[in-house]
Request: fold
Amino acid sequence: MSRANLQAKLPVMITAVVFLALYLGAGLHFDNFLTLRVFFNQFSTNSFLGIVAVGMTFVILTGGIDLSVGSMIGCTSIMAASLMKFHHVHPLVGLGIPLLFGILIGYTQGVLVAKFSLPPFLVTLAGLFFCRGVALFISQETLNIEDEFFKKSLSEVSFHITDKATVSVPSIIFILVVAVGMFVSLRTPFGRNVFAIGGNRQSAELMGLPVRKTLIGVYTLSGFLGALGGAVFTIFTSSGNATSATGLELDAIAAAVIGGTLLSGGYGSVFGTLLGVGILGVVQTAIAFDGNLNSWWTKIVIGALLMAFMLVQKGIERAATRKVTV
Amino acid sequence: MAGERPTCLQLTGIGKRFPGVVALAGVDFDLRQGEIHALLGENGAGKSTLIKVMTGVYTADDGTVDLNGKQYAFKTPQEAVNAGISTVYQEVNLLPNLSIAENICLGREAKGAFGIKWNDVRARAVKALARLDLKLDVKAPLSSLSIALQQMVAIARALDVSAKVLVLDEPTSSLDAHEVEQLFATMRKLREEGLGIIFVTHFLDQVYAVSDRITILRNGQKIGVWNASELPRLELVSQMIGRDAAVLESQGTASLTTETSTPFLTFEGVGRKGAIEGVQLNIGPGQVMGFAGLLGSGRSETVRLIFGADTKDSGNFLLDGRTIQRFNQRKAILSGIGLCPEDRKKEGVFPELSIRENILVVYQAKRGWLRKLSLPKQKQMAGALAKDLGVHPPDIERPIQFLSGGNQQKALLARWMAVEPRLLLLDEPTRGIDVGAKFEIMSLVSKQREEGRSFVFVSSELTEVVRTCQSVLVMRDRKAIKTLTGKEITEDSIIHAIAEDSK
Reply:
């Protein structure tokens, strides 16, 4: 690997090292932490965060941001729960309609960003309010889902890896989303165009790349993954709640940034985001294991980590520019 | 070059209008296979618009575009590329965050069942670069290359789509002399392969170095087309700016008289790590000192030190014979030093502000923001300065971003004239501006000098240095290697000084 290549991969490598250090550190400190059960539980508890973080990564890679995904989870989960509970639709329809809603909202945001050149921050802030409003409009109560098919085929299903370790449906969807996300970002023209737009939008246009289409696609993807996160959340909790996942978009942004994705766009990876989600998950689990610490310690640690990662990225960036000028 | 070669690109009667402006009126242009055709004109002559019409960025209002006998009306750059017209722009329009291979192949990657076939992409990139006699690690990010090599990658990308016509829009403006030579070698090679090349540049030497034919535009109209060998340089300039050649001739070299009293500014072995080493220089009142040297020789770095934008690590810095310890931009301005930076767009103008505000910003800062100049006074002062310097259009309330490069530069000069500096640092003041504005700026410098004002004049165009300066500091590898004065200053002597005993 040449020096320049190494420099590009350095942020992800640092994230990987930090992840392993945290994981092993917690494992040495707490009994039963280094078990497969805890490992696979991580995938379940972080599934919806991970799914929206993949979408967020694509958006940030173009230099944009999507603030609507947290509300999207709340909105689609209450929508799905209410469709199943009050309208008695089949769970697959009940989960499918919110997915279409997510695609529609994402597409609309994409058009506003790409065609009308509106700032993504404001467009998706509007989306955030809109989705949360729709969610509260649907119902302000927690709706538990009693549907037989839903329980038997989705929420209560688990595949045994060992006696104690199980993999749930949310984890499987999460892993699939990460795998597809990695493939799309690395090996499809759409994915490469995403990087190109983040690198320099004007250049991408002059190179004849479909900039607008790609941008619309990215926001549509993020809307879809937001809704899919909502579906997974509904499966995970067997209920819908309009106020759930408040502020989750910020966790998703944190996961992407810790995973080495630059907010200015053009640099980052889906795999890095997976590691970022992993770090957030390990911190959370470790604090839960301790039992004496309050949950806000999670936020304190994440805040400190985020700051440290930004400094590391800035350092790498400086080292890179210095090399070019000399 | 033979006149019998077949025409590949033919533009006929091209017209393009923007609200309130006729950018092009009935322009004809033809390009033959295997020729390098220079397209010249002042800023605002319509060169860029014509290029944009033939590359699909704009659609023409009138006229036709024929490529190899087939008529086209491009609506997007991609359509033009597909038809065989590829463009390399002045500023490298590639993606620094992606690999060299991707920059060459993006948008037309080979795809298989498992997505993009990266091995094919890389092989294709290696092949495209080989055509330009380049061997690079195509996996490395583009940002690891020098600007010159990035330019080559841009050309490789342009050629990767079986291009028939290659448009080079000011490709040399950020290259040093050696890199320009390499680019020319590539251009000649591609010409031999039968490619038609359109070459836009502001450097007249370069026009004669590679071009077969020359087309000149002025005010949106075609003035004519000549064989390069049959158009003398002075004639070319006068055709471009529409003035009599004899008048230009009279703008001779700078008068050679220099009586240096106490120098205004002195550097005694000033250095800054990674920028310059042990630089000696003296600038007296009423003196224009040129800095000559290749790109990266330390010219701009020295200018930044003089202006206090960077601090020195070693040596002495004297103003009016007094040693200065701590120095910064504000102190520089208060001591009567001004800077017109090299990167006009980024470091010079405030693009959204009006010409008036751009002109008065330093004056107001020096006066103190609490003592705000009244609007009528602002208008009067900025208007007078804009008029003095010939800023066009004279409407000083227009945002400065709508002015051409030359007029922006004149407005920047006006900004400093407002505070009557003792020493004005001009870093590449004539880069990217048209010939007419170049002459105006140079004669302004000469006039101001006679009133006792000093200048530092940094330029890559030696003709300008010779014409304008009383002394020339030649720099190489971050060191000042020689100071030429008076009659010693010729293009030859400068080139020799730059070149001599460099390892």
Summary: The domain at 11-25+35-325 of chain A is CATH 1.10.3470 (ABC transporter involved in vitamin B12 uptake, BtuC). The beta strands of chain A are 143-144, 158-160, 166-168, 239-240. Chain A has one domain: 11-25+35-325. The two ends of chain A are 21 Å apart (CA to CA).
